[in-house]
Amino acid sequence: MQPRSADDTGLQVDLDRLPDHLGYLVRRLQRWIFKDFIQTLAPFDLRPAQYSVMTVIHANPGRSQMAVALALGIERARLVHLIDGLQARNYVERVPSANDRRSHALHLTRHGGIAFDRIRTLAAEHERRVAERVGPEQHKALLRLLAGFADG
Amino acid sequence: MQPRSADDTGLQVDLDRLPDHLGYLVRRLQRWIFKDFIQTLAPFDLRPAQYSVMTVIHANPGRSQMAVALALGIERARLVHLIDGLQARNYVERVPSANDRRSHALHLTRHGGIAFDRIRTLAAEHERRVAERVGPEQHKALLRLLAGFADG
DNA sequence: TATTGTTATACTCTATAACTATA
DNA sequence: TATAGTTATAGAGTATAACAATA
After folding, report:
1. Which of B6, B129, B87 is nearest to A61 (CA)?
2. With contact defined as beta carbons under 8 Å apart, do B116 and B54 qualify?
3. Which site among B17, B29, B39, B137 would you substitute to test the A interface, given the most A Cβ atoms closer than 10 Å to its Cβ?
4. What number of other Cβ atoms are within 10 A of residue A77's Cβ?
5. Which segments of chain A are extended strands (E)?
6. Tens-level pLDDT at each residue, chain A (152 residues)
């Protein structure tokens, strides 16, 4: 085998000022976290966005798609497809709203509620792995530092 | 105008345990940061991934696409398109490698180097806005907490 | 046999615009 | 006029698989 060359993969690469950009660090962490979430939730084939939608519907039954979209910072056009998918799996139902015939009241179905119990268990397991990865103290510090940040 | 109804947008929405998930908080922060980055760099129409690639090539001229891809955690198939775009704008050039005829040595062009100087200025301006948004102390704390995290 | 760059495909997510039915 | 939901489109990013040239 040849000695590795000057432009080879094996050599260290200088990231220069990238680590001074919070966006760079945050993005890399987020990718790792999402990858672990998706793997952990693989038995339910549930992605982070779907989990956040189910969580909000579970905690706020009867709210409209707009309310959920605004709370999560998801485009309402995107939420349509997310709800479509969850509805197709019989996790979520759109109930005609009594007050405003334009909107739907969102609820978890019975099946969705039962699934959500187990989904939550896996999500908690995932979070333990995140804490382990970044360090328990760092995990607490990060939750505290980022608490209440809304990207409005 | 009617009083707002029970499932209306105006009411508070309970996020339940979402804020205990680091992934949720990190994702929302990352979206805000990227949005600001894209706006700030709009004069160059440069996105975060393109900026990271130019930064690494600038700091490590002559390295291969694989080396850059590994350093940034970008799929090599994806990097092909990123380099294509930067090359089409005459920011980056692929030079045939002397040692390994399979690979290209990546360099910023003269034009790319000049642009990068100004791009860096805008990126620093962006970072000041990030620090302002999360708070200067929190910004420092976050950089320290996330330093060295690699999503390998 | 393994690696580099490339092409191709599929899916997720973001961003917009336009349409409908209601308000 | 404005809003809720929907449909459609375009682009970025991720994940794979396969191929040619080269190691």
Report:
1. B6
2. yes
3. B29
4. 8
5. 92-96, 104-108
6. 344 444 455 679 999 999 999 999 999 999 999 999 999 999 999 999 999 999 999 999 999 999 999 999 999 999 999 999 999 999 999 999 989 999 999 999 999 999 999 999 999 999 999 999 999 999 999 999 999 887 76
Answer for B35: CB within 7 Å of strand D.
no
Find the angle CA(B127)-CA(B131)-CA(B136) to the nearest 5 degrees: 145
Q: How many residues does chain A have?
A: 152
Mean pLDDT of B115-138: 98
pTM value > 0.85: yes
The terminus-to-terminus CA distance of chain B in angstroms comes to 55
Closest CB from A27, A67, A98 relative to B30: A27
Note the strand D nucleotides within 7 A of protein beta carbons: 3-9, 12-18, 21-23
Q: Give the integer Cα–Cα distance in Å for A69 and B73.
A: 31
Tell whether B61 lies on the interface with A, counting CB pairs under 8 A. no
Q: What tokens appear for B22 in the block? A: 């680091």
Q: Give the per-residue pLDDT at B9.
A: 58
Which element (helix H / strand E) includes A118? helix A110-134
- The packing angle between helices B22-40 and B48-59, to 10°, is 80
Q: What average pLDDT is seen over chain B?
A: 93
Residue corresponding to tokens 């105006």? B10
